[in-house]
TrEMBL record:
This is Aldo/keto reductase. One of its GO terms (molecular function) is oxidoreductase activity. Residues 15-344 form the NADP-dependent oxidoreductase domain. The lineage of its organism: Bacteria, Pseudomonadati, Pseudomonadota, Betaproteobacteria, Burkholderiales. Keywords: Oxidoreductase. It comes from the Bacteria.
Amino acid sequence: MNPVRLGQSDLHVTPICLGTMTFGEQVGQESAHAILDRAVERGVNFIDTAEMYSVPAREATYGATEKILGSWFRSRPGMRSRVVLATKVAGPSRGMPWVRAGKGMTAADIVASCEGSLRRLNTDVIDLYQIHWPERSVPAFGSLYYDPSQERSQTSILEQLQALDRLVREGKVRHIGLSNETPYGVHEFVRLAEQHGLARVATVQNVYCLISRALENGLDESLHRLGVSLLAYSPLGFGLLTGKYDAGGTSGTGAPADARIARFESVRNQRWGRPEALAAARRYNQLARDHGLTPTRMALAFCYTKWQVASTLIGVTSLAQLEENLDAWGTRLSPELLAQIDQVRWEMRDPAN
């Protein structure tokens, strides 16, 4: 895996990033350390986390994932300098008062969250600090439409950017990024950075997978023209694109008892739990089998080879899953298969957007 440059920054990362949101909920510290060790041994140099992790978010596990990473760095002298570390400041509260009391995301909130992450991660600097979701009211996490009447923004983009720039100038953060963002948001962050001489966003971390490709309807052009890199998350559609849910009936998930979508009602009620998402995933999974591929390998290869994607986030709960996801690197999908994938999208669109 040849390193790729993120945006206009000096960060060079592997095109596969280890996502860690399961650490602290489904994955204990010892297993998490083993997964991290093996990922680095296999050549991965990019790790992503967030202050609100683990997932599903709850007060008892707030910050747990960052603490596990911090303990890993503490027990592995010299490891911190070998990896590019990304984390995120949570956006306005989505039913998580333990993250912050207010409903917005002020400049003071951003600074306080960053300092909390630095402590939990046992590090002096965060390589890539991202806003987890916009402070504005935008369609995200499965909602489809922008509704101006729902706008409750309390902090301007300029004020957010100034807070992030302060963290960069103080040496606490090297570069900044966004997540779950819209074309407008990306353009505005870049415009204001260039107008005021502030830190420029290097990345946008958005969902991108076979059953959620809305990014290709405009955001990809914005990222390309503005020189901002895409970090694609949920390439396996929260597990739907692995085939492990294919055995159930059309009205059920058919998920193994230990799968997140089976264990946590909050997950089932989101975009990944829609019957349409499962139906589309099953179409893609069968298409993979018809071409002699596992569903996991085809879904990952789709993201690994798309021009839009700089680095793909993989989230695993075991060493076996890690190996499978990394082994998919280098897989090429034939023009015939890609055409068939596009045909399924034409028929079923993007049911997990």
